[in-house]
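quick one, 261 residues, struct below
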Amino acid sequence: MKRMGMIFRAKANKALDRAEDPRETLDYSYQKQLELLQKVRRGVADVATSRKRLELQLNQLQGQSAKLEDQGRKALALGREDLAREALSRRASLQQQVSDLEVQHQTLQGEEEKLTLAAQRLQAKVDAFRTKKETIKATYTAAQAQTRIAESFSGISEEMSDVGLAIQRAEDKTAQLQARAGAIDELLASGALDDQSGLAKDDIQAELDRLSGGTDVELELQRMKAELAGGPSAQQQAIEGGTPGAAQQQSQQAQHRFDKP
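---
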């Protein structure tokens, strides 16, 4: 059970860390400090009110004491010693109350001064915390923005890496296809990929094709010689039927080779 509780608390703490925004926490702490400062100020105001009330009572008692003293003087002047004694007795009772109120007044005045000083110090701390809070919030916001930008660039880098791999694969396939096409061309040129179905050309047709290709070359050679010599071309002579051309000579040579045993 203890282990399960520890796991639960760890997971809850991790979830809270993800959900917590330091800026909101700082604002909440600042709000609480403002509430505390307001309470201290309210306490100062209450103490000041009590002190003022005592001052009013003191002024009233001191006025009554002065009045009784004046009555005692008048009674004594009129020969009424008894009245003078009564007035002085009442004045003495009031003086005791005045003394007690003065003590209370001094105590309240001291408390008021302490609370006022505490309020001033707390105000200074709240102001300093507010400045620090705004600085931390600005720094956190900037760091958060930088992190997002870095993550964006990282994502772009990954995408560009994927694109680079795709291009590399395409180039490899293109090179492979080009190599295969070149190999097929070479095989076709060498005859390795000729038709093997039994319908291949016979040796007579192959010889005729060779002689035909050679005839074209000989005719072109004779024409060029004739042009250089300044006379009619051998090809024209062959067409007009004047003299046997190179084509007839090549055919006779081919026939002679086939007639041999």
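The helical segments are 2-19, 22-77, 81-190, 203-229, 234-240, 246-259.
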